[in-house]
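Question thread 4412

I'm putting together a teaching handout and wanted feedback from people who do this every day. The idea is simple: show students a protein as raw sequence, then show them the structure tokens that encode its fold, then repeat with a second protein so they can compare. Below is the first pair exactly as I plan to print it.
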Amino acid sequence: MSLDELYREVIMDHYRSPRHWGRLTEATDSVHLHNPLCGDDITLDLMIEDGRIKEVGFEGKGCSISQASASLMAESIAGKSTAEAVRLLKRFRNMMKGAPAGDDEVTAEAAAEAGADAEAEADAEDLGDLEALSGVVKFPVRIKCAVLPWEALRKAIAPELNIADDF
């Protein structure tokens, strides 16, 4: 099985069986976004306590890329601190811009200074299954589909960042 086939399988698995599907009844943050160009729609709910994302839920409709991206993102950020989620968001943004996975303005040293532990730093270094979406960069019109859930996350936890204008 080629890497592209494996990535396609991961995307379709998350599209068909999304993780963290459903709205949270006690969300502390909720963001709804719609991409008028392709019709993708997402509502992201977060329950954040003491700077940590305790629960994630989402509902939406749209293409396999947008829905798989939401599922992969939710799985990746659940249980993480908001600082860890912001680092992951930046790494994902860089991947969608075609930058190498390790090319991030948040260095391990800066993460350590911010109080992140070694495990969190290792998590930030490896995008894991999120790398399945790396092939989207070959299709610029689909990048916004993959980024939509991440833009919802940004609006919820780091409104000062602006990743949507990057694409």
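The second pair follows. I'd like the answer to focus on this one:
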Amino acid sequence: MGPQTPNYDSWGKTLKAEFSDKLFNESDDQSALVYLLLHEKHKWGDKVYLENEYYFEGYWLEIVGKLQRIEEKYLEIEKRSSELRRRKAEKVAAAVNGMVREKRLKEVKMRFGKEGWRRPFITHFTGCQPCSGDHNKMYSGENCWEGMMKALNFADDQVLRAFGFIMRRCPAMSLPPLPQSGRCRLAFRRPGSLGH
């Protein structure tokens, strides 16, 4: 059903017809999986576990506005734990800090999910369509861009913290673009952004 197959366009139409709320005529992995589970449950049903206890892939509109508060909550936990504040070798820190942090998170009852305050594992920018610019009309391309920048800064901080640094929030990013690779070119760009 993916873009590497000759039937990609026809699968897109099939999935759009199957799911009335699907916005685009393109096949995607989520729709394809649901389609297979609906139409070939006997073949795939016992081989698939649908996780619903963990907020694996969060919708960006639900997450981006909470990122600063999430970070504040984690910093509060870190301030109360000398073990988390102590810097360690990266390999040691990943294992030890993970266990200590998980224990502290459970103590303060920080949950996963839309109402929870855990760090998102994946922030999914569903509907932004940066390659085509054909984003969901419920929000602007500018909102998508700003949300992506917030999520990227948040993720950068998670990496930098392991080395004892934190990024100060800058009002505008100034990053040089990589040489164009692939077919995706951001269609919603802030004027003057990314060196353009």
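Top answer:
Good format. For the second protein you could add a caption like this: The radius of gyration is 20 Å. Residues 183-189, 191-196 have pLDDT under 50 and may be disordered.
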